[in-house]
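Ticket opened by: R.M.
Priority: normal
Category: complex prediction / small molecule

The reporter submitted a protein together with cobalt (II) ion and asked that the result be attached to this ticket for the collaborator who will pick it up next week. Submitted input follows.
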Amino acid sequence: MVNQDKQTVMITDTILRDAHQSLLATRMPTKYMLPVASKLDKVGYFSLEMWGGATFDSCIRFLREDPWDRVRQLRKAIPNTRLQMLLRGQNVVGYRHYADDLVEKFVELAANAGIDVFRIFDALNDVRNLRTAMRATKKAGKHAEGCISYTTSPVHTLDLYVEMAQQLEEMGADTLCIKDMAGLLTPYVALELVSALKRKISIPIHLHCHATTGLSEMSYLKGIEAGAAIIDTALSPLALGTSQPATESLVAALRNTPYDTGLDLDLLIEIADHFKQVRAQLSEYESGLPGVDARILSAQIPGGMLSNLASQLRSQNAMDRYDEVLDEVVKVRADLGYPPLVTPSSQVVGTQAVINVLQGERYKVLTEHTKNYILGKYGKAPGEIRKDLVERVVAETGQQPITKRPADYIEPELEKDRRELAEKLGMQPRSDEDVVTYALFPEVGLEFIQIRDGMKKPEPAKPAPAKAQKPSPAPQEPTPATYRITVNGKTYEVSIEDATGFSVQPRADEPPTKKAIPTDGRTVKAPLSGDVLRILKQEGDEVSQGEEIIVLEAMKMETKVVSPHEGRVAHLLVKPGDKVENGDPLVVIS
Ligand code: CO
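Result attached by the on-call engineer:
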C-alpha cells in the first residue's frame, strides 16, 4: 500500500447534477429531488453536486423552472451538507465569455442562494479564465475548487498539470479537482499524477472521473492510494456508463480499509430506491449509449459530448455518419491544438466535425465558434493551431488573434443587460437573478421570465412543419383512436378523438410549401439543418465572394452562410424563423 496513514476518503455525490446530465439529458426536475433531500442530508457526504453545467440551461429551456429557486429549495431541504456547483470560469454556465461584472454577480447570487462549493474550470485550462470566478468565490467566503480539465495529447504532460495545479493553489484554491470528463485517466497515470501533485501542492485533491471507458473505479483506487482525499460518485441507479462510478460500490470497496468513507450503505440503498423510480419516469431521455465505449480511448470524447453528437446527428437525419464523425472529432481537435473536450470547446470541435462530415469536405464551412476559437476568443489553445486555418480566419475576418485574456476585451455588461431586460419586459426586472438569467440566455431566458410571470403563454405543442410531414395513406376524416386500458385488473375500452385543433394531414387545397427554385443564378444550400436566425443581405444587394448572407442556428451554434462568388442576391428563399434542412436551397446568387 502506498499510503500507510489512516486517510478517510470523502465523497461528493453527483446524483443531482452530473449523473442525470450524463444519462438523462439533464432532465431531472426539482420535484424528483426533494422527496429524498433530508435523507441525502444525513449521509455525510463531502458535498452534493446539484447545480451548474447544463442544469441552468435545462431548467429554463425545458423544465420551465427557475434555476435559482432550485438552489433555494435544496438549500432549505439540505441544511447540513455542502451544496456544490460546476462553474465554467469566465463562461459562467453559458457558452461564451462574459464580462467580469457578470461573473462576479453570478457568483455572489449563487452564494446567497445557497451554493457552498464552486468547482471552477476552463475548457482550455487557461488559468486566466478562472481568476475572476475564483476571486469572487473567495470574496463571498465560499469554497473555491480549482479544476484541471484532464485530457491526453502530445502537449498535455504531467509537468503541465502540476504547474497548473500550483498556479491554482496560488490563486487561492481550497481544493484541486482533476476533472476527467471523458474517462481517460488510467489507473497508473492516476497514481503518477496524484503522487506528483501531492509533492508540489498541499491542498486536498478531488477526483472527478466518468465511467465511460470502464476505468474509473480502478483510477479512483490508485488515486486514493496516492493520496486523493475526495472522489465523485453517483448513487447506483444513475451511475456508470457516461456517468460516475456507483457510490455504494466505492463505499463497499473502501470499507474496513484505512480509506473507509464511513458512510452507511443501508441508507444509501434506501435513497437509491427513489432514484430507480426517477430513472424509469425519465426513460424517454435515455441516451441509449453503450456501457463501455472503447473508441473513446482514442477519440477522447466525453460522455456528454457523445450524447450531444448523437442528438445533433439525429436532428440532421444523419445518425449513420456517427462513426465518421467520431474520427473527424479526433482530426479537428488536433488541428485546433488539442483542446480538452468539455463545454464549450467540445461544442466547437463537435459541431465543426459534424459539418465537415456532412459537407463531405473538411473546413469548407467554418462555424462562427471555430473562427472565434482560432482568434483566441476562448483563451489560449494548449497546442499549435494549424497555420493555414489561422491565416484563413485572419483573412476572412480581418482580425488578428488576441493574446490577452478574452474578457479583457469585454466591457462591463450588467447594467446594459438590466436596461435591455427592462425594455423588453416593459418594467424593471424583478431581481438581479433575472438580469443574470437574461444575460446568460437572452432569448430562452427572456421567454422563461415572461412565461413564469404570466406575461406570455407557453407555446402549445405545434404540429411538425408541413414540409417535414411524410405523405400518409391515413384516412382524411379524423378517426377516434381506440385504446384498451386495464385498471386494477378490469379492462376498459376508451376512444380518444383528436382535440388539438391541428390537422396533421396536409390539406389538398394548401399551396405547395416549397417554392420552385429560380434558375437564374447559383443556389446556395443549407450546410446543415437548423433555424434561420438572421438575414444579412436583401434581394438586390451586391455581395462579394465569401461575404455573409444568412446566419443559421443549428446545434446551439451560429453558422454563417456565405456567397460562393461575387454577384447579386437574386432570390432569398427563406426568412428569419424558418426551419431548414440540410441541403434546402436558401438563396440564389446571380
Ligand atoms: Co462530469
